[in-house]
Q: What sequence folds into this?
């Protein structure tokens, strides 16, 4: 057993090295060029997405949107950035100075890193040097991406804590609770992909999607990822940390000037990051979509063309983000956490077991018909059970509600210590006099109160 | 190590950009401080004094963080298993299902005891 395992590990090592072949051999100037390219691409994308979002949401609400700065308003976000740069930078008295200044930097820097591991295209030649259109790849690239993405939470958390004020503290706690909850569902949705791809390197995963996109054969994983990527980036309808009705501006309440802009920069880059990750893991990465990929012996899958497909896929996903924001109302906090912990995580775990079982059955030589038969029967049984249980559950709930309604107590306007008006349909037991000032019976005490106040004053 | 080294370039670029913007904005931005401006924001009233060291944090978040750690460890075990799935065969599958079951039991317990209720 041990020798077999050691043998396997040895082979795994060789395989891991093979998987990332073609990386780690670039000359330094190519690396510098790629870094700069990714950096500029991210900044431009951010500037573009902010205006794009405002324009799309405006259209959805029958407005025009920004149209003043630059051609058709496309330079609006640049102007906003410059304006924020010139604003007064306030560090509140109660704030922990060092952490307060570091927090926006901590949240912005990791956002830039994820794109280094995303494959933007196949091999291209830059000034005669053949290289892949990806900064670097490692055998554990996706794990590294998850690690980088979650270190951005420190920024939000520390920003909330260091402001020394109640609203930011609550906002910071909320966003960290939210991000870690949805990170679990997100990480679990990757397992099925690794199972099919047999690798964690991003270029390897794109390679293995040559025949079919994982979004099609692993649709449940894709759905879980889509939901959790919105939760992970704190975007509407899951933008609870910024729920202005409850927490003012959440963790960013005390921030001003460019530090405030840094959080927004990080948020938008993270949106681009998770979209790029979805493209890589589920939508075939830089590969041309189906009808195009068949043209001319795959000519659209070579050279610089793939960059176009990649960016197009990312833009479609970004549009989905904006679409969600334009159409859905914000979740309530408990509903949101319930969705993450009680729906997405158990569902993902069950899905992993199912996919593993199916894959195992295929590997062991069970025929497709047998698998379909077993899965069909299992699905039918499951559906019948869930239907019956939900039906019974509803009946029980209805009964409970009915009994609660029947046992309703007569309305008492002073129940909570403060007088409240009756709700529609309720009968007030004691008529509440709608007068300003003290009730008629308390003249005496009121006089003594006012006289006391008078003497104190 | 060659595979990881290029990331340093991005780290440097990102950090330089972030630090540069923060420093420049503090230098060129106006400075017209007054007492009210430096106070914490709290609906315009006198801010509530905050306890030194940030005070207490609601237990709910603590429980969420604990559960997160357990699941995160589970995921760390799931990833290599998924990558080597085809080579591990029936033994690997059964082992992982057992492991998942062991994690699911306390999860269900926490759920039933109301550890996953938020308000």
A:
């Amino acid at each position: 057993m041990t020798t077999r395992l050691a043998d396997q590990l040895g082979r795994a090592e060789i395989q891991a090295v093979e998987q990332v072949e073609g990386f780690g051999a670039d000359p330094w100037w190519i690396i510098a060029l790629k870094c700069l390219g990714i950096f500029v691409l991210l900044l431009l994308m951010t500037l573009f997405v902010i205006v794009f979002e405002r324009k799309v949401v405006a259209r959805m609400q029958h407005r025009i949107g920004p149209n003043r700065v630059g051609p058709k308003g496309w330079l609006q976000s640049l102007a906003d950035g410059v304006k924020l740069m010139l604003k007064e930078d306030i560090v509140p008295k109660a704030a922990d100075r060092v952490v307060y200044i570091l927090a926006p930097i901590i949240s912005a820097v990791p956002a830039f890193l994820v794109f280094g591991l995303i494959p933007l295209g196949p091999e291209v030649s830059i000034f005669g040097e053949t290289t892949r259109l990806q900064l670097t790849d490692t055998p554990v690239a996706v794990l590294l991406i998850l690690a980088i993405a979650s270190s951005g939470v420190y920024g939000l958390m520390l920003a909330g804590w260091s402001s020394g004020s109640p609203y930011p503290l609550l906002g910071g706690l909320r966003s960290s609770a939210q991000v870690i909850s949805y990170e679990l569902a997100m990480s679990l949705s990757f397992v099925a992909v690794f199972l099919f791809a047999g690798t964690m390197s991003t270029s390897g995963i794109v390679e293995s999607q040559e025949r079919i996109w994982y979004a099609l054969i692993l649709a449940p994983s894709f759905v879980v990822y889509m939901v959790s990527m919105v939760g992970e980036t704190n975007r509407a309808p899951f933008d609870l940390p910024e729920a202005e009705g409850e927490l003012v501006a959440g963790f960013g309440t005390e921030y001003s000037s460019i530090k405030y802009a840094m959080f927004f920069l990080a948020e938008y880059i993270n949106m681009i990051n998770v979209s790029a990750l979805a493209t890589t893991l589920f939508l075939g990465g830089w590969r041309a979509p189906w009808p195009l990929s068949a043209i001319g012996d795959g000519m659209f899958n070579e050279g610089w063309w793939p960059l176009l497909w990649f960016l197009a896929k990312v833009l479609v996903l970004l549009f989905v983000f904006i679409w969600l924001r334009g159409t859905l109302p914000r979740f309530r906090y408990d509903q949101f956490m319930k969705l993450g912990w009680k729906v997405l995580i158990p569902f993902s775990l069950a899905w992993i077991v199912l996919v593993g079982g199916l894959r195992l059955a295929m590997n062991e030589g069970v025929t497709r018909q047998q698998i379909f038969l077993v899965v069909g029967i299992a699905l039918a049984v499951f559906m019948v059970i869930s239907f019956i249980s939900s039906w019974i559950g509803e009946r029980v709930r209805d009964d409970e509600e009915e009994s609660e309604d029947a046992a309703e107590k007569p309305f008492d306007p002073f129940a909570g210590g403060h007088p409240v008006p009756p709700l529609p349909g309720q009968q007030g037991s004691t008529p509440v006099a709608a007068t300003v000032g003290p009730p008629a019976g308390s003249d005496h005490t009121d006089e003594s109160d006012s006289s006391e106040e008078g003497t104190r004053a | 190590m060659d595979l990881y080294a290029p990331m340093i370039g991005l780290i440097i670029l990102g950090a330089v950009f972030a630090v540069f913007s923060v420093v420049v904005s503090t230098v060129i931005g106006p400075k017209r401080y007054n007492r009210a401006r430096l106070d914490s924001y709290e609906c315009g009233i006198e801010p509530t004094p905050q306890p030194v060291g940030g005070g207490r944090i609601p237990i709910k978040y603590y429980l969420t963080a604990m559960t997160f750690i357990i699941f995160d460890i589970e995921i760390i075990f799931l990833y290599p298993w998924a990558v080597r799935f085809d080579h591990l065969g029936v033994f690997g599958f059964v082992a992982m299902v057992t492991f998942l079951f062991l994690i699911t039991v306390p999860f269900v317990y926490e759920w039933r005891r109301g550890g996953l209720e938020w308000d």
